[in-house]
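Quick one: structure for this chain?
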Amino acid sequence: MKAAVLKPGRDKAVRNRHHWIFSGAIRDLPDFEPGEILPVRDAGGDLLGHAFFNPRSSIAGRMISFGSEAPEAAVRENLERALALRRTFFDPAVTNALRLVNAEGDGLPGLVADLYDDVLVLQSATLGMDKLKPLVVDTLARALKPRAILERSDLPARREEGLDQVEAVLAGEPVDRVRVLENGVPYWVNLAGGQKTGFYLDQRESRQLVRAHAAGRKVLNMFAYSGSFSVCALLGGAVRADSVDSSAAAMSLAQDNFDLNGLGSESGTFFTADVFEFLREPTLEHDFLILDPPAFAKKRADVVAACRGYKDINRLALKRVRAPGLVLTFSCSHFVDEGLFRQVVFEAAAEAGRRARILQRHRQALDHPVNVYHPETDYLKGFLLYVD
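Got it. Here's what it folds into:
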């Protein structure tokens, strides 16, 4: 049987259940169709598992099973295990918007599956996972019986895989918008044209944190998107919560979410503006600032420029916040790890001339598990700062 054979001494990562195989680790590859699943063997011929391969990608292979387990059986089992994990931690009567599959975090490279009430949204980042899509759709449809299954495979990573961007209805009816619950709070989620698959599910615990500490404060929510942090701040007793985003469509969605939660026009203002420029302008005073920017580093080569951006935006926020105040700041750039982000925040505070203390650290929500064998699944980090 044809197989991919690794070079001597280059099998340690796979033996440690890491999913990625780089081209430099491969000794022999047979003729194969891009995206095809192949057995993976070490230089001595021992079977290590199965992976799908794409010669166009810098990550030539991605393991979908280890040892002797059949690849299709492993996909089904990992999907079932992913669903079981979510059932353990989430009550659909309280939270019905959650990530069901977190790619390598759930042993399924390149696959994201998010559930919004009774609508399932899939993202596929790799050719191999595209070819497994019928198996994935069938397994999840049988388990969940959703009203619709949508695909939002509009990820930049698909270009390296030689794939087009895809937005499609895989089953059921088209759905543009859906109402969801998160910790009992309702939100509108735009599934057509929204950011990510529609909502920043990974910030669930952080929204709870804001609700817990917003009482009596004036909040400024930057890169606000759907206004969810602002909603939670007001439900937690904030005096007001103002929202800033460069997208007029995002600010319209945020207004809809205020209306959905019975929050009046006096609760906050929606500013369609560039956050960097907005923070340089004199405006309302705030003593709780939230910074949740998009990933500034999409690849390793972006790290230096990204850190400049993170330092600039945090310096502006730290100069601006009224003392004693809070700044909740995040980075979702995988290539900027927690240690580096902490260094950036330190430099920003020093340049702002403000005294800041870390009260808490934050990471992605429970439905975004980090695979201990695949640390690349850890990407979101944040600090709650006390500024006086």
